[in-house]
């Protein structure tokens, strides 16, 4: 490695964040830009560990020690070449990935792990600064035409790979802009949308065609899709949110989290926030948290994003409740290194102000005489392990039922599966037991011309898994069309199969 003693000399240091008062007044990214000297120092912490388990922790198989070494040598061109060989969009993963690679870092056994996510961001930002990110236009075209339906990270990655293989690729999106949940789900304070547009300009110059405002299955029928294209790759994500069926669900003020987040991203972009991706008006109009008591139901990243957005709106109070027990502060014995650790995580949104509670169940949404939400009836839960199965079982704590103020409730309990009505039913694809598209590898079990990748195939997951799925599906499509594929194959995970389902 560039500095064999670096892990002994330097501590893990993440980039500085803008002050809470400053960042609550805007929607710009929270972290300050990486500097060359800081990036070099953090890369120096990558040790000569023998077996780099970080490779296994990363679903993309990123070649991490090698690009760290290049950063230490300040050879940014080589660092970018290594990183981009496995990761199409390090500008995404360097900002919004939970970094499973860091959880598998050998240094992390007894010290804070290498700041791999930060270094990825530093490499790609330096690459754009030095004009190293240039369109790679294929020298030959195969004459084959492929439709990629859904423009999130899985669709974008697949489109990029298939275009590089020489196929004509059309990336379709039912919203007005390309990007999927990265565009209209991830808040700008985590990923500014100019980052997406910068990448799309490169992809368009490489020959990929973008079609927006195309609701495939409605504006373009399934049979038309199959007639026009040699192969169809479905990457529309997991879009059906998990609902709660309790009394008062109909009240004004109860919303799915993604409706709230996408509206704010549209405001930031100067786009009408009163209509959804189909141009239809939202049932309850604009959702504004200013001067309201906000309760976020669900303790994951989407719930955290609702917390940060509500704070920027100027909510009176923000409470986040979670059904499950509070995780341990440190890595739990049930998830030893190099597995993805079960532990408490505090986001930048939580740091900005939020009252967090665990082992809470929502019993009822309570409204006023005008049908507006005013309170939430909740109850404490006691979780105990079943002595026979070892599984956690919950019971309500007697006498703990109470009402808390709530003008806005955001349901952030995850997603079930892709929307089956319309395109998927028209294509007659089969579904697995969870309602996701059933495939053999990445190829639909019902039609050999139809493939699937990302959350619509594997279920709700991480951005890094979406990119990995898109790359692997592109290889499968290429093999189907050409008999053989020279696209990059992902390294097989040997040590950490448990994270494949995280």
From TrEMBL:
Keywords: Amino-acid biosynthesis, Glutamate biosynthesis, Oxidoreductase. Pfam families: Fer4_20 (PF14691), Pyr_redox_2 (PF07992). Gene3D superfamilies: Alpha-helical ferredoxin, FAD/NAD(P)-binding domain. GO terms for biological process: glutamate biosynthetic process. The keyword Amino-acid biosynthesis applies. GO terms for molecular function: iron-sulfur cluster binding; oxidoreductase activity, acting on the CH-NH2 group of donors, NAD or NADP as acceptor. The keyword Heme does not apply. Residues 25-129 form the Dihydroprymidine dehydrogenase domain. Residues 145-470 form the FAD/NAD(P)-binding domain. Pathway: Amino-acid biosynthesis. This is Glutamate synthase subunit beta. It comes from Dyadobacter fanqingshengii.
């Amino acid at each position: 490695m560039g500095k064999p003693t670096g892990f002994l000399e330097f501590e893990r240091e993440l980039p500085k964040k803008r002050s809470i008062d400053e960042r609550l007044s805007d929607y710009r990214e929270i972290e300050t830009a990486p500097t060359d000297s800081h990036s070099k120092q953090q890369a120096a912490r990558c040790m000569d560990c023998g077996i780099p388990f970080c490779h296994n922790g990363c679903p993309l198989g990123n070649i991490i020690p090698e690009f760290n070494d290049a950063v230490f040598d300040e050879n940014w061109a080589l660092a970018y070449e290594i990183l981009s060989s496995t990761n199409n969009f390090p500008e995404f993963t360097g900002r919004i990935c939970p970094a499973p690679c860091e959880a598998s870092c050998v240094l992390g056994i007894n010290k804070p792990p290498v700041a791999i996510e930060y270094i990825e961001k530093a490499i790609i930002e330096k690459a754009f600064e030095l004009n190293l990110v240039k369109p790679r236009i294929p020298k030959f075209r195969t004459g084959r035409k492929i439709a990629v339906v859904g423009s999130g990270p899985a669709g974008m990655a697949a489109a990029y790979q298939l275009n590089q293989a020489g196929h004509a690729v059309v990336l379709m999106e039912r919203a007005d802009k390309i990007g999927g949940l990265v565009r209209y789900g991830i808040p700008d304070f985590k990923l500014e949308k100019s980052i997406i547009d910068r990448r799309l300009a490169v992809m368009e110059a490489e020959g990929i065609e973008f079609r927006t405002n195309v609701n495939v299955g409605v504006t373009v029928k399934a049979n038309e899709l199959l007639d026009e294209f040699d192969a169809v790759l479905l990457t529309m994500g997991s879009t059906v949110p998990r609902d709660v069926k309790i009394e008062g669900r109909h009240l004004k003020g109860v919303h799915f989290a993604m409706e709230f987040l996408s509206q704010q991203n549209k405001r930031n972009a100067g786009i009408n926030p009163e209509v959804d991706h189909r141009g239809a008006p939202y049932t309850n109009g604009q959702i504004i948290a200013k001067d309201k008591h906000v309760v976020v139901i669900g303790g994951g990243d989407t719930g955290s994003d609702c917390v940060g957005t509500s704070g920027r709106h100027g909510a009176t109070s923000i409470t986040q409740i979670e059904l499950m027990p509070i995780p341990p502060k440190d890595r739990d014995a049930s998830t030893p290194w190099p597995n993805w650790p079960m532990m408490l995580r505090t986001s930048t949104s939580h740091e900005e102000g939020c009252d967090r509670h665990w082992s809470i169940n929502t019993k009822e949404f309570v409204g006023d005489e005008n049908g507006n939400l005013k309170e939430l009836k909740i109850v404490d839960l006691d979780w105990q392990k079943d002595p026979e199965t070892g599984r956690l079982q919950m019971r309500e704590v007697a006498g703990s039922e109470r009402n808390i103020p709530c003008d806005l409730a955001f349901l952030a309990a995850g997603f079930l599966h892709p929307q089956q009505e319309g395109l998927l039913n028209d294509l007659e694809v089969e579904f697995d037991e969870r309602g996701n598209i059933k495939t053999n590898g990445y190829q639909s079990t019902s039609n050999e011309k139809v493939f699937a990748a990302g959350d619509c195939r594997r279920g709700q997951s991480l951005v890094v898994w979406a990119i990995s799925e898109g790359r692997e599906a592109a290889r499968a499509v290429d093999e189907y069309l050409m008999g053989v594929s020279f696209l990059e194959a992902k390294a097989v995970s040997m040590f950490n199969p448990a994270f494949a389902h995280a």
